[in-house]
Amino acid sequence: MDELRRQCARMLMVGFMGRDPDADFHALVEEGIFGAVLFRRNFESPREAAGLCRALKERAARPFLLGVDQEGGRVARLRGPPFTALPPMREIGAKADAALAERVGRLLAFELRAVGFDWDFAPVLDVDTNPQNPVIGDRAFGAGPELVSKMGLALSRGLEGSGVASCAKHFPGHGDTVQDSHLVLPRLPHGLERLRKVELPPFADYARAHLASVMTAHVIFEAVDHAVPATMSRKAVDGILRRELGFGGVVVSDDLEMKAIVDHYSVGEAAVASAVAGADLLLVCHRAAAQREAIEGLVRAVESGRLSRSRVEEANRRLDFLERRFSHPAEDRWSTLGNAEHRELARGLSAQEVGEDPTES
Fold first, then answer.
1. Distance, CA of 139 to CA of 88 (rounded, Å)
2. Cα-Cα-Cα-Cα dihedral of 184, 255, 170, 233, to 10°?
3. Is the omega angle on the peptide bond into residue 88 within 30 degrees of 0, that is, cis?
4. Looking at residue 196, what DSSP letter applies?
5. Of 278, 289, 290, the residue nearest 252 (C-alpha)
6. Distance separating alpha carbons of residues 154 and 358, to the nearest angstrom
7. CA 343, CA 347: separation in Å to the nearest integer?
8. What region, left, alpha or beta, does residue 116 occupy, with left being phi > 0 and alpha being psi -120 to 50 degrees?
9. Which runs of consecutive H residues, i.e. helices, occur in 133-219?
10. Average pLDDT by consecutive 10-residue portion of the chain (361 residues)?
11. Rounded distance between C-alpha atoms, residue 152 and residue 202, angstroms
12. Number of domains in the chain
């Protein structure tokens, strides 16, 4: 296979529909995609998830990262015994106890590693400043940047210290929107002074802590870039996240098939613009046609000169580093769930049954 195509394919992490990956998915694995994101639609139970993770890694026959959104509360893809039913992060944040947040991170990593995941798309570092926000709300640790930083960084340290990559989301901050970017493209009119005071400090602290990854928001921040969402904005990603905040880890887009993107741009255009802006990894979580469109778009953009080969190589180097730190081979750790260590980590953290995130399928 052409080396450029392989490098471009590696900038994708994809999902698939249903319980069994199809021929299109396996062809993308052969082309070199970085890994896969799993959702509730892909398995009925945690035990089935464990079998699927093992099968995917064995079929890939190379380092192949598996990611999942396992935040706690309503955003938890793995539910039911022996997994711990965690409360929303708002409840954890209300305790203002960094040691507790770090224990939550260790517990999440323990459970995810037992099933076969390498990367948790958590924590939410959005600051919950708007009670009308339909998508963040109790997923955030609280309404102040200091508390969000304290608890979010502690949870991230717990995850990464136990072998699972963390991912701070959703940069530069989705906490004050009144719209859900799964459904529409939100805009925020806040000036830079407000952003630097409220939305950005948790991400600045995460960058200084040299943690693994940051996920971008499909939100237009008018003071930063009035034309495109942050995911596609070089001013936001390269300008603020990389240069101003000094983040050196992997930048990953939110799913490019969300309506905030596909109602306004093609997936191919969004993929190219995101890569030019500074994203290293692109999530395309549903359709094989969209995933192929993203790869083809990246290849053509390099060939035309719009996307530099050096930008693609830079992204691949960052992905190499993440892979070396957090990729794990298929292994049988299911029996560790429910053992004394697991029970101690889970002690006092179980929640009453909570509703599921309606966007998680």
1. 6
2. -80
3. no
4. I
5. 278
6. 28
7. 6
8. left
9. 145-161, 192-194, 201-208
10. 93 96 96 97 93 96 97 92 93 96 97 97 93 80 96 98 97 73 75 92 98 95 92 97 98 95 95 98 97 98 98 98 96 90 91 63 47
11. 8
12. 1
Beta-carbon neighbour count of residue 320 at 10 Å? Answer: 12
Examine residue 344 and state whether it is found in any structural domain, yes or no. no
290, part of any domain: yes
Residues pairing with 72 in the sheet: 75
Considering only CA atoms, which of 109, 235, 108, 254 is closest in space to residue 169?
Answer: 254
Distance CA 247, CA 208 (A): 7
On whether the CB atoms of residues 210 and 201 are closer than 8 A, the answer is no
Q: In this predicted structure, what is the pLDDT of residue 332? A: 80
**Residue given tokens 């037992």 in the structure block:** 114
> Can you give the CATH number for the domain in which 153 is found?
3.20.20.300
**Structural domain includes residue 282:** yes
Note the residue count of the chain: 361
Q: Looking at residue 86, what DSSP letter applies?
A: P
120 three-class SS: strand
Range of the domain at 291: 13-334
* Tokens matching residue 152: 């979010």
Q: Label residues 278-293 b or e (16+ Cβ within 10 Å = b).
A: bbbbbbbbbbbebbbb
For 4-50, the DSSP string reads: HHHHHHTTEEE--SSSS--HHHHHHHHHT--EEE--GGG-SSHHHHH
What is the distance of C-alpha 2 from the center of its chain?
Answer: 28
Rounded CA separation 9/176 (Å): 34
Residue 192 inside a domain? The answer is: yes
Catalytic amino acids?
Answer: 182, 254
Residue 60 is encoded by which pair of tokens?
């890939």
Q: What are phi and psi of 210, to 5 degrees?
A: 60, 45
